[in-house]
Design the sequence.
């Protein structure tokens, strides 16, 4: 691939960190305080996405109004825990550590031959259970940490790490997450390390996706934001000897993960079905 | 002429609370003795209404309008609301003066594409009319209406000097340190001001609804193509406002310098549009 030509034919999306910060703080503040709450809770993994969500929510609500929950599993990388503590300390946020090993292990033992994906999903969903319990315990809303790239690629666990009340990162591509993290002072080791869901030892997002985030972001920006067709993207890729198969993998991932981006199907038998005819804004009278 | 613009932040679906806030704002703005006070699109209801539309709709004879009438003083106050007429809902901009409900513009082009779904809930207004305010002819283009240049042209034909554009424009896109909206709205309305020798007044709302952010903005473009700076800005009952003073002599200066509106041949424009439509239909 001619990288220089690829980068010029597939530019990164424009991004203004100060403006994004202003907008996201306003949205977080509004969506939490308008329902009479002032607190937030989120899982902090030691990765860049949760570090950025933490930085934003601490700024929006005040660090005292945020609880970070570190939820290691016995095989989690020690560096993840260390980075999780580092970002909490950096933004002055109180954290609690809730080891999920004793919660998920009995189930793992009861099952024969669980593959890594099943185990990873259970860990992600266990973390969701803990966060939603803290939400009730502390009268706090759960803040999401999924970015636009992984939402579009379906690289997340339904009802696991995708579950939240407000997701400030959902319209930010991974490159924008990096830019905003640097702008807000997320510690360099957290920004610079290779992205990993850390659901099993040595896991790497890019190896598992068989894609680089840089390439995915550039292609997704054209296809999703600028509505360029798949054919258009493939023709342009051919013009720079780009990785056609990688683009096809991206398109396939978007299609096959659509179910994760929708609410469950409601079988319709009445005239007025929830979310089909009965459409109400979430911020109804609040 | 003095125009106050209020970048109001409504509570979604709560007309009662929003009315109280409008009354508070109007009381606080009284000291400026503005000829016109403009609130944004759907200021009484909020924007992302969906099925709340019917619940927040008002009849033109609603008692609420008399409450407003009692506080407007000598100002003409423009407010965004949902009007219900003959079982149909309109995204409307109404003028209230001390004499009551004086003028209604029903949005002609409720957008239904991209993030917008207005035609699902609102009918299209069928008429573009204008009203005399403080001795000048004023017309309205609610938000998306201003994306249809033929409506700005129609106001010009009717002799409208002052075009009011209230909006609920969701902030999105990024251009040189700002959302795309402020530059885009200025580009658009400057073209109309220049082409038709009109003042254009824009006011966008503040706030957040369902994760969508509205970035407060208000500006005036003179027919000399200059953006006017506000003479006062501040908060009224917690809502941002800007006051502008416009010199109507700008229109005379623009006329003296000459401009394209002076060569408009209305009958020819109509004929060209008719011919273009025929040509299009012949290809279908």
Sequence:
């Amino acid at each position: 691939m001619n990288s220089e030509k690829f980068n010029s034919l597939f530019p990164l999306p424009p991004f203004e960190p100060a403006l994004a910060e202003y907008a996201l703080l306003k949205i977080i503040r509004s969506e939490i305080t308008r329902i009479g709450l002032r607190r937030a809770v989120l899982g902090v993994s030691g990765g860049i996405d949760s570090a950025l969500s933490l930085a934003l929510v601490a700024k929006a609500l005040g660090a005292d109004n945020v609880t970070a929950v570190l939820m290691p599993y016995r095989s989690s990388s020690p560096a993840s825990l260390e980075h999780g503590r580092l970002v909490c300390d950096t933004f002055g946020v109180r954290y609690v550590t809730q080891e999920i090993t004793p919660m998920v292990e009995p189930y793992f033992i009861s099952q024969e031959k669980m593959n890594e994906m099943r185990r990873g999903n259970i860990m992600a969903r266990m973390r969701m259970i803990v966060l939603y319990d803290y939400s009730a315990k502390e009268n706090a809303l759960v803040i999401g940490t999924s970015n636009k790239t992984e939402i579009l690629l379906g690289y997340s666990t339904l009802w696991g790490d995708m579950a939240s009340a407000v997701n400030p990162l959902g319209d930010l591509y991974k490159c924008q997450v990096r830019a905003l993290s640097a702008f807000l002072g997320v510690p360099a080791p957290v920004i610079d390390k290779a992205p990993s869901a850390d659901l099993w030892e040595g896991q790497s997002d890019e190896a598992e996706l068989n894609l680089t985030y840089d390439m995915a972001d550039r292609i997704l920006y054209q296809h999703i934001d600028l509505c360029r067709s798949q054919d258009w993207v493939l023709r342009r890729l051919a013009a720079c000897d780009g990785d056609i198969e990688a683009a096809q993998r991206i398109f396939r991932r978007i299609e096959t993960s659509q179910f994760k981006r929708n609410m469950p199907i409601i079988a319709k038998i009445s005239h007025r079905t929830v979310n089909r005819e009965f459409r109400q804004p979430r911020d109804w009278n609040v | 002429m003095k125009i106050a613009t209020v970048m109001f932040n409504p509570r979604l679906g709560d007309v009662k609370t929003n009315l109280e806030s409008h009354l508070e704002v109007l009381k606080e703005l009284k000291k400026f003795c503005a000829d016109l006070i403009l609130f944004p699109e759907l200021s009484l209801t909020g924007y992302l209404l969906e099925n709340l539309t019917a619940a927040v709709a008002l009849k033109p004879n609603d008692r609420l309008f008399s409450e407003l009438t009692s506080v407007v003083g000598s100002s003409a106050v423009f407010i965004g609301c949902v009007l219900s007429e003959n079982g149909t809902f309109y995204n409307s901009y109404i003028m209230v003066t001390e004499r009551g409900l004086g003028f209604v513009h029903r949005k002609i082009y409720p957008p239904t594409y991209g993030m917008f779904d207005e035609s699902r809930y609102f009918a299209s207004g069928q008429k573009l009319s204008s009203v005399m305010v403080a001795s000048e002819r004023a017309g309205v283009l609610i938000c998306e209406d201003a994306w249809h240049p033929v409506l700005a042209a129609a106001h010009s034909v009717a002799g409208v000097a002052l075009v009011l554009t209230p909006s609920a424009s969701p902030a999105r896109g990024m251009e040189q340190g700002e959302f795309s909206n402020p530059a885009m709205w200025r580009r658009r309305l400057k073209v109309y001001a220049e082409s038709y020798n009109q003042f254009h007044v824009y006011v966008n709302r503040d706030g957040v609804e369902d994760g969508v952010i509205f970035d407060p903005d208000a500006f005036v473009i003179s027919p000399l193509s200059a953006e006017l700076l506000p003479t006062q800005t501040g908060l009224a009952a917690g809502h941002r406002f800007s006051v502008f003073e416009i010199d109507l002599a700008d229109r005379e200066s623009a006329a003296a310098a000459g401009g394209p509106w002076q060569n408009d041949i209305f009958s020819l424009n109509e004929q060209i549009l008719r011919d273009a439509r025929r040509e299009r239909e012949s290809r279908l």
Remarks:
- The first helix of chain B runs from residue 15 to 29.
